[in-house]
Amino acid sequence: MLFRCHLKRALPQKVSCKFCAVMGKLQSKLKYSTYKYSRPDGFRDERIQTKAFQEYSPAHVDTVSVVAALNSDLCVSGGKDKTVVAYNWRTGNVVKRLKGHEREITKIACIHKSGQFFSASRDKMVMMWDLQGSSQPRQQFSGHSMVVTGLAVSPDTSQLCTGSRDNTLLLWDVGTGQCAERASVSRNLVTHLCWVPREPYILQTSEDKTIRLWDSRGLQVAHVFPAKQHIQTYCEVSEDGHKCISCSSGFGGEGCEATLWDLRQTRNGICEYKGHFQTVASCVFLPRALALMPVIATSSHDCKVKIWNQDSGACLFTLSLDGSGPLTSLAVADTISLLCASFSRGIRLLRVDHSRGLELQEVAGF
Question: Where are the WD repeats (predicted)?
Answer without folding.
Answer: 98-139, 141-182, 183-215, 273-318
